Structures are given as C-alpha cells and as structure tokens.
Amino acid sequence: MSDDDANILLEIHTSALAGMVNSPRHFARWAALAADEDHPDADLTEETFRARLVGGDEALLALWSRHLNDWDFAESPLWSPETAPRTPARRAAVYERLRLGEDLRKVLDEAVRVSVIAGPTVITREFTPWYTQERAAARTFYWRAYEHKLRDKGWSDAAIASLDGASRAVVERLSNPEQPAARQAKGLVVGYVQSGKTANFTGVAAKAIDAGYRLVIVLGGTLNMLRAQTQRRIDMELIGQENILGGADPSDVDSLVGIDYVGDDAEWDDFVSHGGRPSTRGSFDIDRLTTRDKDYKSLATGIRALEYDKRERTLPLHDPSNLHHAAARVMVVKKNKAVLTKLVKDLKQIHGILGELPALIIDDESDQASVNTSNPKKWEQGRTERTAINSLISQLLTLLPRAQYVGYTATPFANVFVDPSDGEDIFPSDFLISLPRPTGYMGVQDFHDLDSPVEDGERTVANSQEKAHVRGIYDSTGDRLQEAMDAFVLSGALKLYRLAAGVPEKNFRHHTMLVHESVKMDDHAKLALRINTMWHEAPQTSAPGHARLAALWESDFAPVSEARADGLPCPASYDELRQHVSRARQLIGSTGTPVIVVNGDSDRYFDQLDLDFDSSNVWKILVGGTKLSRGFTVEGLTITYYRRTTQQADTLMQMGRWFGFRPGYRDLVRLYIGREETYGRDRTADLYEAFEAVCRDEELFREQLARYAELVDGRPQLTPSQVPPLVSQHLPWLKPAAANKMFNAELVEVRSPGVWVEPTAYPTESADLGHNANQWMSVLNGLTEPPVTLGSHLGEQYEALVSTIGHSDLLKLLCELRWSEPSQFSPHLESLVEAGGLNPPIDDWVVIAPQQTSGRRTEARILGSRPLSLARRVRRRGRLFGAISEPKHRNAALRIAGAPTALAGNELVESLVRPRRGAVMLYPVVEEVPTLGTDGSIDPRHLVMAFNLVPPAGSGQPGQSRLRFRARDSGKSEFAIIDRQDIRP
Fold first, then answer.
1. Which of 177, 393, 450, 853 has its CA 20 to 30 A from that of 490?
2. Reported pTM
C-alpha cells in the first residue's frame, strides 16, 4: 500500500470512528459511509487493516488505541452495562458491536492490550445521574483541548483514558448546572503526594466548564509560589493562548503590555492553542480573573467582570439557552484571609445573578487551612465558631447557592474528621474518591519494604527498596551531608551521561536536591551557609573529591543501577563519568552558589534566588521548610536530605517530596533520612519508620475504601459520613490529624466472608502473652499428627499440622484473648458473634499450623504440646506487627473457606472444603531468639500466639452490608447525613 493509500485509509477510519463517540458500532458500515463520496474505491477489507497494524502503521494504531481505551474505561455504558471497565469481557463486547473478525481481534489485542490501570475508588451517596455519556460527548471543546495537550506531553492513551474516567467520576456527582432548583454537592478527591492531583482537577474543570459551570474558583494553596504554579498549569493546559491574549495581537508589542507569559516564558509556544478565539469557533471564551503574577485583588473591571450576557433575558442564566453561550470565568486564588475577604466582599455587591450561576470551587490541599480547627468545647451554645479561611469558604458557599465544592488532598484525615452535621462546612457529604496509584509513580512501595518476605540479612539492592534508595542518618554515621551532596553531583553527572547517550533531554531539564531540617528561617540561613562553605572547601572536582565520588560510585550507585537501571545507559567505570562530573558541578554552582533558600524570609540572611522551574533550568540544592513541604512540585528531585520531626501524620506525609515521577532516573534517587532524631523532651524518632507508618495508615484507608465501595443490593455500603472510623494509627506518637477534628460514627462490626483477616495488635505484657497462650492450649493439643502437605494445584507446597474446632468453641477462645489495641479486632469478632445466629450458621473451623521443614528452623513445646515451628517476627509499627502470615500459606485457608479468589487446592485441601466452614492459620511467634528449657519448651510469656482467619464465604447474607456503625451524631442541624437505615442500635 502506497503512502497515499495509507493516508486515505487513516482518513476513512478517523471519520468512521468519530461517529462512534457514544458507542462502538458496525465498523465496516461506518467506514463504507465515510469512504462513499471521496474514496469509493478504497480498500476497506479487514485483511488490509490487519496488515497495516502488523506493518507498524503508528498513526492508525494510535487512532484505534485512543478509541479502544475510551471504550475500555467507560463506566456502565448503555451499550454494555453488564461488563466491567478494563476487562476482557468489555473488550469482547466492543469487538462484537464493531463486528470485527477473530484474526483482526487478535492483532488489536496484541497491539492495544486491555489496560490494567486501576480506576478510582468511589464512596458516594445515591445521586441522580445527569452527566450521561451522550451529554458528555455533546460538549467537549475544553476537555478535548486538554486531552490533546496531555498527549503532546507524552501521556499514554491508557493514562488519558484513566484520567478521563476519574474526572468523569467527579463531574457526574456534581449537580446538573442546568437544573432549575439550586443544589450544592461536596466531595473529596484523595490522591498521592506529588502524583498528579493537579492533572485530575484540571480535567474536572475542563469537563465542568464544557458542561455549563461558568465560574471556577481554584483555591491554590496558602503560598504565592504554589498559587502561581497552579495558575500557570491551568493557563498552559486548559485556558490556552487565545483566552490569555483576550483578543490582543501577538505580533503587536504594545497590545501585549500587561499580558503574562508572552515574551518571558520559554514554553509559551507549548501553551494550548485553540486555533482562534473559542467564541469564534462555536464554543465560548474563558476570562481569567487572576494571572500568573497577580492574585485576586478586586474585580479588575468592577462588578462588570461577573456580568453574564444572556441571549434570553427573561430566562435565568442556568437555562440551556443562555448557559452554553456565556463566557466562563476562572480564578486561582491563594487561601489567604485578605485575598478571600476581597472576593467575598465583591460577590456580596452582585445581586441576582449569583443565584443563577453554576459555580465550581476546587480546593487544592483542602486539609490545609480550609478545615475548621477551632475548639468546639469553647464555642458558645448554639453557635459554630470558625477559623478565618473556613469561615470565608463557608461564606462563598452561602453566596453561591449553585456552587459545588471539591477538595483535593493526599492526606484526607482532617477532611473526613469534619463534623458532617455542620451543613455549612466542607465535609465531603456527597462523595469521596480515591485516585489510583499512577503508572511510573515512585511512592511508598518504592522506598519501603512493606512486609517483604525476604529476611533482613538476605536483602540486597536488587530485592530491597530500602537498600536501593534509602541511606539512614544515625549517630554512628555522622550527619552524611557531605555524602548527600556528593551523591547530588554524581547523580547529575549520570544524568548528563545518559543525555549524551540519547535519553530525552526533557527528563533532565531540572536536577535538584532538597535539604529539610527545620521550619525556622534562621536555621535555613545557617544551613545554607554551611552547605555553601562545604561546596567550596571540598569540591568534587579536586583529587580528593574525585576519590570520594569514585568510592561512592563503586559502593552505591554502580550496584544499584546495575540492578535497577532497567536498560538505561550506565558507565562501566567512574572514569567515564569524570568529564560529566565537572559539567554537573558547573551547572549546580552556575550562579556562584549551589543553594537556593526557599522560605518566607525576604533576603535577611541569605541571598534567595528565584526558584522558577518554568523559565529556566534549575540545578540547585534547595533549603527550606513549609514552602517546600506541601503542594509545590519540586522538579527533578533526585537527592533528599530529611531530618525534620513532627507529631502529626498528615503534616509528615506532605513533607515526602521524594515521592513523584522520576522518568529516566529512578535508580538514581536517594533519600538520606534521620533514624534517631530528637523530638519533644528526650525522645527520639525514626523518621523512616514514621513515614512507613503513616503510609501504611493511608494505604490501609484506601484498601478499605476499595473494599466497601462495592454496592450491595444497589445501595452503597458506606457513605462518606461513615468513613472516619476506618482511619487507623500505626504509631502511637504520630496522630492522623489534630485532636479537635472529630468524627461522628464508631465502627462496630466488619463482616469479612471469604476475606483474609490478619490481626497484628498483640499484647506486649508478659502476663497477657501467657494468658493468650493458655487460651490456645486445647487447640494446640488437638493438632493431629503427622504433618500433612497442603498447597494449591499449581505448587507452593508446605507442611502443616491440622485440626478442627467448633464455631462456639472458637468464639469462646477469641472472646477471652487480650490485645494491645482491642479496637483493631473487635469489629471482626462482633461479626463472628453475629454469624453464629445466621441461618445456616457457621459450623466449624479448620486450624492450620504451618511447620518449617528446612532452613533456619526453630521448634519448641508450648504448654506440653508436641514440638511446633516458631515464626520470627518483629513489631514494625509500635505495638503492631507487620504481616505475620506467609503468602504461600494463605491459599489453602482461602480455599477451605470458599473464597472466590482462591486457587483449587491439592487433594487434601479439597477434602477439607465444606460450605459452612472457615479456616484459621496459627503462628506461634517469637520476637527474638528464644531460650528453651531442657525439654525443648518455651515460656509462654515470651510467645505471641498470632493467628489469621478466613470466615466462610457463605457466612454473609445476600444483600447484607459488610459494615455496621454506631452513630455519634451531634444532631445540631438538619444537614446530618448519616443513613440511619444501615445503622442498628
């Protein structure tokens, strides 16, 4: 096929697929229609189509990739409501509607695989659907512009489809902007630190504006630099050149006075272009009420800036005949009392139109400043007292009765602890959406070995995230600041080496190191002076400096990159890096100093250079505190030196600037972190352990949201008001959020039919440990001999002792156990008590005690039992263990309990399966090498009798919620949103 024929085929396919925005249809017919007039002789056979794909026609493949991903990700489409998104069944339904042949399907499946990117987790109240697929497709001007921009930035079709679905999940839960009655919706979107939340809310803004929202207020953090960064992102990727110019001629210098970006932004040509003013292209314009350099001061042209032209003056603005012709207004404002007071004052002067105006308030970093932190105990009776920013947001919501509020944060605990009975506050009463972990993101899993089965002594840079990326600062190691600075220069040299080897330049435009020890500005100045002195007194390009870097290369970077570079170019020796070391040091010290101080201090102690990632390449060491600890994206961050303590989990989590996207240099990322930092009075904290604890808190929170997001009998199991009890706390000294952010419901019961339940809050006191061991004595003595072999039909065999116990006997045992934190297991125990009265009831439980048969095996007699294997575990989170069970043991228990996710077992496992039977996995655990008696016995006071259980999959009643709450509703207003039909006293 000639190039002309290939272009014709692409044109026909593009035209045919353009008619399938709402649903896939008979492709051959639509292609024939598209070819009818201009290309009646075009070859439209499947054989030719298939040959073009196999032959590498990238344009044709990209076209089909976009459409297949759109259909794969669609949520409950009318054309295939019975298939789940991103599944082979959905793809098969698409092919059936397109009526494609089997051979072509195989080629498309290989070229455009069904995406495994997870969709968002949604906790929601019931809502009236209005943002249908047809309506969303009818007006897409700004969304399509944003989508094209993301594609230009290198986003994959699957990633764009994922963002499309996630942003749609938000917009469809807002109120219909055209509806006659005013209604507000409030929601919260939870992402990860530096994971693309801005991309999501920009997509939400684009779709909301297309749908009819005509005022968008973005609360862009509390700092000027964060607000400006957010403004530029939205201007660049959504609003676009023509709206920024506002009709000015870009070739007329005089007309550009006062217009930002033009002439002073290196990436102006990369800003979205709509091909002309949107109002001349069948859409509508966007007027900016703030700019990159100017926060909201007052309506620039008086109150007229919020006057909307109506085509039909007798009808309200929200009527479709007016709404879809009016210009939209967008502002990005700082969460600052003076700024928001001016905005509220101006809005109060506008009469009439505000009640007709569909508005969207997007609150970036919504757990900061926005939450009401005044102490309820000090309020006057019958009166809610609010902190300044919270009060002003409340006033905005009152002035704009059609305003929708959507908060965005990576640390949601403060938001979900807001009193939901306060209808004027920002509690996410309508929806809570947890975004999936994006592809390519470096997060907690990339810096911590969460419950790794690899023993500490066997961990290497290849199998341990900590070994690869984390360098602890202990009293015995010194402060390691010089080493961290050397690592910064060495990693910069490695980036330059890769750049010379052909890795894209955009990956290495910025190269930064973050040093964070304190929030005090005096400390920043002293630290910056120290770094500057070290830089000049111990240069990396001197003979001793090259020796240090060569040693660091051999001991650290070479082995890590060998194991983790994933095909990226790496030098064979340090000698290949020497020339790049000189260039890296030159770039870092280009202004005479390697340091930029980033704080609120105005040049009192140290020359603060501009931190501008937009107009220049930044290769610097950044010293700061609050300004660099929330929201603001530190581009090119490779080396982090972190030693600041805090006792609030959300504050700590926001300081994790080392989380983010690191294309082309993941293997070079290093975290130098304090492991013995002083806080409070004579207390020390392991900051690495603290980060792991808060990350576990948040991951567990997300896992539980995902588990209970599933509808039961068409209704949500969990409403946003019932979310707070799911918040856990793994370290006793690290609180999830401030104490005066209370919640309104207590978790009483968790039903887990067919689900693995793993308690970890075992007691620490010797008497309690001995008590628990005595409770298990009859079970231990009932284990049958000899050991049997368990496992799945795919392998993973292991030896175990097995017995059975009746349900009532197990309940009696469990009810007598003692815990370090009883609330961790009590909701599960409550469900087992309730399950005893089910019809049919739970009959019995199989007890499995895995036995080690090789390796470092330790056995002991427990209270006269036969010798049993002991498991060695440590408490990784205060009084809590990490995972106790071993992955290879779990399938047998899940299979016996009838879990739908379990693999078929071996013959013995299958013989143990019963409809009303559960499984218990028993692990006698020691926390250090045990001392055994002469008869091989162990003191039960030195033993943790740990267990896991899987309740029978059939023990849940059809249509029954898995959660039960007891309400703690303040009942102060009519806005209480607890769904009492699901709550039993």
1. 450
2. 0.71
